[in-house]
Amino acid sequence: MRIKSYDITLDFDFNGLTYQGLETVSVETEDDLVLDAQGLEILEVEASGKPIPFGVEKDKVRIRTGKFSGEVKLKFSGKVKDSLVGIYKAPYDGKYVITTQFEATHARKFIPCVDHPAYKATFKLRVIVNDWLKVISNMPLEDVRKEGDKVVHVFKDTPPMSTYLLYLGIGEFEEMRNPGLPEIIVATVPGKLAKASLPASMARDFIRSYEEYFGIKYQLPKVHLIAIPEFAYGAMENWGAITFRETALLADERSGFSQIRRAAEVIAHELAHQWFGNLVTMKWWNDLWLNESFATFMSYKILDKLYPDWYMWGEFLRDETAGALLKDSIPTTHPIETEVKSPEEVEQMFDDISYGKGASILRMIEGFVGEEEFRRGISSYLNEFKFGNAEGRDLWESLERESGKPVSRIMPEWILRPGYPMVSVEYDGGKLVLTQSRFGLLSDGQEVYPIPLTMEVNGKIIRDVMDTRRKEFEVGALNTLNVNLRKGGFYRVLYRDLEPVFRSNLTPEEQWGLLNDYFAFLLAGKVTFEEYSKVLRHFMTSDHHLPVTELADQLSLLYAVNSGKYGNLALQFHREQVRRWENRSDMVGKRTFSILATNLARMDLNYSKTLGAKFQEYENLDGDLKAPVAVAYSVFEGPKAVDVMLEKYRTSKFDEDRLKILQALLSSRYPHTVVNVLSMVFTGEMKRQDIARSLEYTTFYPDVRDAVWEWLKIHFERVSGMYSGTGIFGRALSDVIPLLGLGRETEVEEFFRKNPLKENERGVRQGLEIMKALSRLK
Fold first, then answer.
1. Which of 561, 588, 603 is the last residue of a domain?
2. Are residues 340 and 438 part of one domain?
3. How many structural domains is the chain composed of?
4. What is the pLDDT of residues 475-510, one digit of tens each?
5. Are 135 and 4 within one domain?
6. In angstroms, what is the C-alpha Rg of the chain?
7. CATH number of the CATH domain containing 395
8. What CA–CA distance (Å, rounded) separates 462 from 473?
9. Structure confidence at residue 343 (pLDDT)
10. Which helix (H) or strand (E) holds 260?
């Protein structure tokens, strides 16, 4: 079957949240035409000007065309849902916009269609609405005309694209237009355009950089960047009409580096999709990584080029590689490319493996084949398959042609298999002996991976492919040693003797890698706390933000696990490092101080009292200082802070500011404060989009964890239902359960066994498995 085009007219009752649809599908088929349609009422179907029989069965409409080539017309009606997928209403300030979110398989909730990425077609869209509303879609407007008491908005035809990339937004949008080719348009609900200039400027720079890198122009005449007031995902790459959470798009010079960098990374990621995913699309969702891994990798690559002082490849390790290494070391992992059979399985694919591991493997392969060869391979791949669909092996073959390296032999071993190796390094009588095995937090494996090995021995760089269990190198006397240069390979390294490593001149990435590896070894029981402490103490006084923030993450977690056992060490580190970073004026320095100060405020009441006193001047604080000050105020003042902070939360104009206050309230030491704030999601004061990740801020103090666990059990069905049709709640639980379940491991396992979540089961299992490893440290 081949779908050529969809011609769609939709007449909306905006206040009634319903619409009437007329759709013409141009199709060639050898059998009856079967369209996906969920929650739609199919009223009439005709072909060649005559009515034709049809039947609705299990979210599909079967139209009795037999072998057919021509146009099929459908009349149907639909409803705008109070959900976060399909076509739904996104509320704000007592009003709402109508918006859509179709990835992965939710376009069927909007129109009858073949809701499959391989069935690309052009889309012609006409939307009839009240004259006080604006309408946004993928393409620019072709015509706007009055028709009775409504207005018809006619959009130009799209290029051939998959159904999940279609977009429609209706509401009282305000727009800031940046002319050019393409035209950059930032759209928000009323009153939010003050933070639109910076993202528009960044988007222009990103598009130009991608065009230069890929050697292919952006294909549409415009791109909308749309801030949606209620949005389950971070952003969505609809071709020419990209949707974002407010906090993933809007920023200005006062926002602070954390917010500016997040907006830049998300915008760069979604714009990379305009080539990877939109121009060339995977044939089926098992190759989701072709979209997400590449958009992730390219976003950091382009940001590193445009903002070299941001140290983006270090951020890449923190943001992407760390989570992937953790989630890929437990039994509930999956290959980067894996078989997907159902919509529920698709939703669970949007995880640290498809994003972080895939991007980390691409970084490793780029290092193996060379930057220019990698770029040529990507450009060749995009040119060969543009406006079409491709598979993973198409990419490997393109990279191999351009580089002359055995990419097709190495890539499947990393893409089609789960897990990754640990390389054990020993020095024995002039020989360096390397042994590999699959690393696991709970159990190891015996698999052998083809590792693009990089190491420095006595100042000499050695590159090799280690595709055997054991490999020896003659090195003579050993002075310095460093395996996995710049942490470019997706594997961990366990040294039997750390002294040659400590004598080496390690880069910040390599320091981060050593710290991250040894904390994982501690969790897995492969090293004692004393052995881990050797690495930790070696970097305790580091002056680079990458190892410092890694240590801050580790020691903050250990404090939360058992403050009596690990508290003194955590306090010693944070007090010393806060003094080192508190007067930094550069953006990275201010953000590092923000992380350290937030942690210390939770651990040290004296410090939270001092820092929290600055809350009186909150509005005038630097953007990166607001979060730790708000947390400190909440921690020290406790219930006395609630009314003041809630007033600020309710009167803040931007979600960027509201989230800082919300997260501070949830960082309180007082259990009743935290559960009362969580319950704001039921009154509408907290957005549904925020509840899943908000749970992460409640797990630092044991007493609060007890109360939050009881709250979650009581409200589990209601909270999980807010994310129905997505895997978002499960992904959040994978990070929440490990601490939330400490001391009640059996109870937590039993609860989730009795309360399964379809699209979220993988995330729940991940959380339970990491919980088991973390429990060893109690």
1. 603
2. no
3. 4
4. 999 999 999 999 999 999 999 999 999 999 999 999
5. yes
6. 27
7. 1.10.390.10
8. 10
9. 66
10. helix 257-273
Specify the 3-state DSSP secondary structure of 198: helix
Backbone conformation region of residue 430, classed left if phi is above 0, alpha if psi is from -120 to 50, else beta? left
Catalytic residue among 23, 230, 237, 270: 270
If you search the block for the tokens 């600020």, which residue do you land on? 648
Closest alpha carbon to 300 in 251, 259, 265: 265
Determine the pLDDT at residue 517.
Answer: 98
pLDDT of 354: 83
Is residue 27, in this structure, part of any structural domain at all?
yes
On whether the CB atoms of residues 133 and 14 are closer than 8 A, the answer is: yes
Assigned domain for 34 exists? yes
Segment 107-149, tens digit of pLDDT: 999 999 999 999 999 999 999 999 999 999 999 999 999 999 9
Q: Which of 386, 415, 444 is the last residue of a domain?
A: 415
Paired tokens of 635: 């921690």
Q: Is residue 725, in this structure, part of any structural domain at all?
A: no
Range(s) of the domain holding residue 60: 1-172
CA-nearest of 204, 258, 46, 222 to 139 is: 222
**Cα–Cα dist 61/37, whole Å:** 6
Q: Where are the beta strands (DSSP E) in 370-477?
A: 388-390, 421-428, 431-438, 451-457, 460-466, 470-474
> CB 156: neighbour CB atoms within 10 A?
17
Predicted local distance difference test score (pLDDT) of residue 352: 83
CA atoms within 13 A of residue 736's CA, in its CB half-sphere = 22
Residue with tokens 């390690």: 506
**33 located within any domain:** yes
Known catalytic residue at 270: yes
d(CA 770, CA 752): 15
Residues 381 and 287 in one domain: yes
Closest CA relative to residue 237, chosen from 194, 267, 201 = 267
Binding residues: 269, 273, 292
429-469 tens-digit pLDDT: 899 999 999 999 999 899 999 999 999 999 999 999 999 99
The token pair at 84 is 């976060």
Give 626-686 as a DSSP string: HHHHHHHHHHHHGGGGHHHHHHHHHH-SSHHHHHHHHHHHTT-S-HHHHHHHHGGGGTTSS
- Residue 153 and residue 9 share a domain: yes
Residue 595 has a CB neighbour count (10 Å cut-off) of 22
Helix (H) or strand (E) holding 6: strand 2-13
Annotated binding site for Zn(2+): 269, 273, 292
* 400 and 438 within one domain: no
